[in-house]
Write a structure and sequence with these properties.
Layout: E1 6-11, H1 26-34, E2 38-45, E3 53-56, E4 59-64, H2 80-86, H3 94-111, E5 116-119, H4 122-136, E6 143-146, H5 149-152, H6 157-167, E7 172-175, H7 178-186, E8 194-196, E9 215-222, H8 231-244, E10 249-253, H9 259-268, E11 275-279, H10 283-291, E12 293-298, H11 313-320, E13 324-328, E14 344-346, H12 351-363, H13 365-382, H14 385-408
Parallel strand pairs: 1-2, 1-5, 2-4, 6-7, 7-8, 9-10, 9-12, 10-11, 12-13, 13-14
Antiparallel strand pairs: 3-4
Length: 409
């Protein structure tokens, strides 16, 4: 049966390194769905103590080497962009990373009969795939998935040239939100080759309404502790919320370069007894946290580099579990939050607006419950993995069929 399936190469720099890893698993989750219709091979970077080759649920994984093993730290954890912002020394690894990735892709395309290549993130995976495609003559089979930071950030004359160079040579571009579609079109993509397909969430088995008792006036934040998540604005807002609701609590899930600053703010506002920093939590345990909280707040911002949220899977997860959601009014957020229907929108970088909307939901149980149910219904119909799997499979099959037709002409 497997011999009848087309072989797909998925290339990513965000992928679980081992079992129960706290890194986001959405690319693996996509692979686990696509394996029903395709033979899935994954190429991702190596990391100290990770396996070079392994198979997970039928997905074949290869991790490419790009430096001395103990120093292969550029990817994973808080992500490549965050590490570059935190420590300029990481830039020294970029040439080794990109060159190694290109060479491995060339070798794989020359050796294996892949019907299609799906790099995730325009830079570096999309760029590396395009170069490898040019060398091997297989550029017509590259479909790049863009997630946000790779097009909203990484600006400047040279990097914008790289983005435009890459986009113009891709067979198709998949973006995870309508806002990102407009951005890639502005970089030279052809409209007919751009497809909006958000990453999915398991809204049928895991991120569901739970039987866990919901804590009264409990607020949850989930996300990497980086500037664009806007957590410092929630911290200040929460210090004001506590003045009105002394029994309120805030749980923060995530890790990142802003952790020290966040701890300092919590100490500055003297709210340590009401805030819990949980650090990174395994993805398999997140649903229990969502299910036990009344509200989830996501104060996303456009950061100092121009980077901002590309979609916001955490919002979908929270809504799937019945949380009422308050989130910043940014372009990509509008794919998920319809103000006063599926959640409440706040002005970015405006703590007073957060205080106002959270207080409103604390005081209006009926409206909060209505938003919770409407939010759950909205995401279930649009963002469950079954929807994402079908859209990806249909797109891949159309491109493969078209390429096969060209070859036989």
């Amino acid at each position: 049966m497997d011999k009848e399936k087309n072989k797909i190469l998925i290339i990513t720099s965000t992928f679980p390194r081992w079992e129960n890893d706290t890194d986001p698993p959405f690319v693996l989750d996509l692979c686990n769905r696509l394996v029903n219709n395709f033979l899935i091979h994954v190429l991702c970077p190596s990391f100290p103590k990770s396996k070079v080759n392994e198979s997970i649920n039928g997905v074949r994984i290869k991790r490419f080497r790009y430096f001395i093993n103990n120093f292969e730290l550029l990817a994973y954890d808080t992500g490549i962009l965050s590490k570059l912002k935190k420590n300029k020394l990481y830039y020294l690894f970029i040439p080794f990373f990109v060159l190694s990735e290109v060479l491995v892709i060339i070798r794989l395309l020359s050796k294996e009969d892949f019907a299609l290549v799906n790099p995730h993130w325009l830079i570096p995976q999309g760029f590396a795939s395009v170069i490898a495609g040019i060398v091997t003559g297989k550029s017509n089979m590259i479909v790049c998935t863009v997630h946000g930071g790779d097009i909203f950030s990484l600006n400047g004359l040279f990097l914008n040239y790289i983005k435009k160079f890459t986009i113009k040579r891709l067979r198709s571009v998949v973006v995870v939100s309508q806002a990102m579609k407009e951005k890639v079109l502005s970089l030279g993509a052809e409209k007919k080759n751009v497809h909006v397909i958000p990453m999915g969430v398991d809204l049928k088995n895991k991120f569901v309404l739970g039987a866990i008792a919901i804590k009264k006036r409990a607020i949850l934040f989930v996300g990497r502790l980086v500037e664009k998540k806007g957590l410092k604005f929630l911290i200040y807002a929460f210090s004001e919320i506590l003045k009105k609701y002394s029994d309120a609590s805030l749980v923060i899930v995530g890790k990142g370069p802003e952790e020290k600053n966040i701890k300092n703010l919590i100490s500055k506002y003297q709210i340590e007894s009401s805030v819990k920093l949980m650090g990174a939590v395994a993805h398999d345990d997140l649903h229990k946290l969502y299910q036990s909280h009344e509200l989830a707040v996501f104060p996303f911002i456009e950061d100092s580099t121009g980077d901002m949220e590309g979609f916001g899977l955490v919002m979908v997860e929270a809504m799937g579990c019945g949380c009422a959601v308050v989130a910043s009014d940014l372009p990509a957020v509008n794919d998920i939050i319809i103000d006063n229907e599926t959640g409440l929108l706040v002005e970015q970088k405006n703590p007073s607006d957060i205080v106002k909307k959270v207080s409103f939901l604390f005081d209006n149980n009926e409206i909060r419950n209505k938003l919770s149910l409407q939010g759950r219904s909205y995401v279930e119909d649009r963002f469950d993995w079954s929807v994402t799997e079908k859209k990806y499979s249909d797109l891949f099959n159309r491109i493969i069929k078209y390429n096969d037709t060209l070859e036989t002409q």
